[in-house]
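Quick one, tokens below. Sequence please?
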């Protein structure tokens, strides 16, 4: 079965893997990992990464150029709608009117779980200001649909808490989100290794965003390569359609649809 490219805010991308730029040992390693991953969309934490606002510090854009990649400024580190909105406005100024942003408003420093109430507030304002909002949220299907209906160009439910590496903890909710979605659903946060990424894609997700899973690996470059392959394999498996699960080799005891 042939596959079409993922489309976000009217732009098609060949890669369904989105990657972050934080936590690497150096800018050189950051670039090498991103190139190896094959990602075309790269997230940048505006509050933590210099993209020109600090003239005396290394500039990420000297290593990861907007001419090569679609930059996705995000609001990591924001705990209120007001802070997130302000950060997106700064990103637009620094990136010459760039409107595609990843909105995340966190609830607390321990879990980094999304504050859904503040996220909804921020999304409403940003959409009115003509930002194209990709939004990090919980795996609540009702909230995911609300964010889509508001006008977010992509909804990004967590697989598990940011940086936890626990993998997809609730595949049933992800499936429910996917059933009614009219925009790309991209799993964001919680992926720890290649099998986690493959499972997300096998569920039917349109893509996966990750940072720590690659940057915190013992060999980030090799992990970036593994993640690229996992995304591709998981997508192909989803399109191919897996065989029914059966308790025995015969078809007498089907358990299709059961997650292990």
């Amino acid at each position: 079965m042939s596959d079409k490219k993922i489309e976000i805010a009217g732009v098609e991308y060949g890669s369904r893997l989105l990657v972050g730029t934080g936590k690497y040992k150096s800018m050189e390693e950051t670039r090498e990992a991103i190139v190896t991953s094959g990602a075309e969309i790269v997230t940048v934490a505006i509050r933590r990464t210099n993209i020109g606002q600090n003239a005396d510090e290394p500039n990420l854009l000297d290593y990861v150029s907007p001419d090569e990649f679609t930059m996705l400024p995000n609001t990591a580190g924001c705990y209120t709608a007001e802070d997130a909105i302000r950060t997106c406005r700064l990103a637009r100024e620094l990136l010459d009117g760039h409107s595609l942003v990843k909105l995340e408003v966190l609830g607390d420093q321990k879990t980094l779980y999304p504050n859904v109430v503040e996220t909804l507030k921020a999304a409403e304002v940003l959409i009115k200001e003509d930002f194209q909002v990709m939004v990090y949220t919980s795996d609540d299907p009702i909230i995911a649909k609300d964010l889509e209906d508001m006008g977010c160009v992509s909804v990004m439910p967590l697989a598990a808490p940011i940086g936890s590496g626990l993998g997809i903890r609730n595949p049933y909710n992800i499936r429910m989100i996917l059933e009614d979605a009219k925009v790309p659903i991209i799993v964001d946060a919680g992926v720890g290794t290649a099998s986690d990424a493959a499972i997300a894609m096998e569920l039917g997700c349109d893509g996966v965003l990750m940072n720590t899973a690659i940057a915190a690996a013992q060999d980030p470059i090799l992990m970036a390569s593994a993640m690229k392959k996992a995304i591709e394999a998981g997508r192909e498996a989803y399109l191919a359609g897996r065989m029914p699960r059966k308790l025995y080799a015969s078809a007498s005891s089907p358990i299709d649809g059961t997650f292990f």
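The mean pLDDT is 93. The helical segments are 27-37, 81-94, 116-128, 141-150, 171-180, 194-202, 212-215, 220-240.
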